[in-house]
Amino acid sequence: MVTLAAGLDWSIFLKPAFDGSGTYVRFLLVGFEWTLLLSVLAWILAFVVGSIIGVLRTFPGKFLPTLGAVYVEIFRNVPLLVQLFLWYFVFPEIIPGLGTWFKQGLSPLLQQLITGVLCLGLFTAARVAEQVRSGINALGSGQRAAGLALGLNLLQVYRLILLPVAYRIIVPTLTSEFLNTIKNSAVASTIGLAELSHQSQQLGEFTAHWYEAFIAVTLLYGIINLTVMIASRFLERATRLPGYAGGNVENRSSGIA
Amino acid sequence: MLFARQSPVRESILCPDMRNALALKNYFLVVVGFCLFAGNSWSADDLTGTLKKIRDAGTISVGHRESSIPFSYYDDQNAVVGYSQDLVMLVVDAVKKKLNLPNLQVKLIPVTSQNRIPLIQNGTIDIESGSTTNNLERQQQVAFSDSMFIVGTRLLVRKDSGIQDFPDLKGKNVVVTAGTTSERLIRELNEKQGMKMNIISAKDHGESFLTLQSGRAVAFMLDDALLAGERAKARKPADWVIVGTPQSKEAYGMMLTKGDAQFKTLVDETIAKAETSGDAGKLYQKWFQSPIPPKGLNLELPFSDEMKALFKSPNDKAFQ
Q: Which of residues 169-188 of B touch A (CB under 8 A)?
């Protein structure tokens, strides 16, 4: 370890990058930005789709819950890397018109970003859906019945009664899911998107300083995730509910779960 | 001495099989001792670095590639084959001879372009033989043997695409494998000549070719010998041609740990002998001008002037 540390040359980060974009520090920061952009867009998609699917799974009847279950099982059980290849290489081939437009009409960068967001977003949505579902189920059937008895329709019950509480219960799992999304975004390097892990591999290839590249990328992911973690602690504290997991239980009057 | 004193005690509680094994071990120690003292000019003190490590371990670890056709790849029987693999086996033979270890174990370890340099540096592999370009950046991290091959960076295109050379790529999508010299060159070309190409950098050669085949890119820039290898994997190899003026030359060498003159001398001598004696020329014919596994396709790569010059006077020079 001592010899390794002595052999490291940190000045490579100040050398001009192979693509003429500036120093390798800047080169890595470009990757940092793509990682953030990809993760945030994918997370928005995941949150919207995941919420819809999660709600569907708790609806009365057979059809809609089954639909939600099918979605979750497909997207949760196929490896992320395989899904990415399906989206990027297979999908454009099976939809001839749209696929050709996608492959040849759009710039490669846009193709990679769209594919990355779609793939990561829909994959994470399956996981978000399960969390939304468990949040709603944690409320017990009494609230739903009470809401319906008051004359609200089903959507109103969800929007006004169930979801506001369910979301607040699952904030801790949602934030950790966002952390996962950031880490999973590294798969986009395999389709050539210039995100953080792609850039660090390029840095390794072109400078042959692999250890420095690995260490730098580890630190950068660490910084992103630490920031998100600290922010989510505040969010969790601000949104927690008395009487529910993580909430203040001192003035709880009756035992809820 | 210690061993001799302990063995009677041990023998009394060991089953006969174990006793045999023990006897064998004693015999082995005697043989090794004999070799060390009476054997040959390579006594224990003469060996340093990698050769000493190989002798002590009784094993040589060879890094190879998994799909670098026709340099180093798995054939349909899952055996590692290729031009670079044949050459490195000559080196292994030379090591066996030098160390007087005919039963030296050869450990084959698959490496990728990302981990090959760290694995040489941390000693996991003693030598890497695949399709690694010898360049100045890498020379600061590892040592390179005498070159085994020289390639030019060119283009693979669909036969009916109408693309003949690099100027035809203006405003088009071009794919390169991430981290290759071709990626650096094509980006330079794009900047300097304002060609407005969209450059896609794919994860590996297989994915680059898939990007080309799917129509995302009209050309795939890479070392010509590797392009020939990728073409061999296509459903209809005849649909694809290699075109364009070579933009650079690349010298492939075996990678060794840095600063180990003794091992490098042995490897260099072996490669130089193969190249000047005509053995390497035969390997060239075997891998580049005859049908090769897995599909029995002939790459039909002409023996270039650069290769002629290299085989005439072997050297370990990098082109960039």
A: 173, 178-180, 183-184, 187-188
Element (H, E) at B219: strand B219-223
Confidence of residue A20 (pLDDT cuts 50, 70, 90): confident
A209-232 mean pLDDT:
94
pLDDT of residue A208: 87
Average pLDDT, chain B: 88
CA pair distance A120, A182, nearest whole angstrom: 10
Q: What residue of A is the nearest CA neighbor of B119?
A: A210
Q: Is this structure's pTM higher than 0.90?
A: no
Domain housing B203: 152-250
DSSP letter string, B237-281? GGGEEEES----EEEE--EE-TT-HHHHHHHHHHHHHHHHHTHHH
CATH number, domain with residue A223: 1.10.3720.10
Inter-chain contact A211–B118, Cβ cutoff 8 Å? yes
Q: B141, A208: Cβ pair inside 8 Å?
A: yes
Q: Which has the minimum average pLDDT: B13-22, B63-72, B129-138?
A: B13-22
- The string of pLDDT tens digits covering residues B8-20 is 444 444 444 544 5
CA distances from B36 to A82, B32, B92 (A): 54, 6, 21
CATH number at residue B135: 3.40.190.10
Residue B199 and residue A108: Cβ atoms within 8 Å? Answer: yes
Nearest CA in chain B to A92: B214
Task: Using the predicted structure, report yes or no on whether residue B5 has a pLDDT greater than 80.
Answer: no
**Cβ contacts (< 8 Å) between B217 and chain A: which residues?**
108
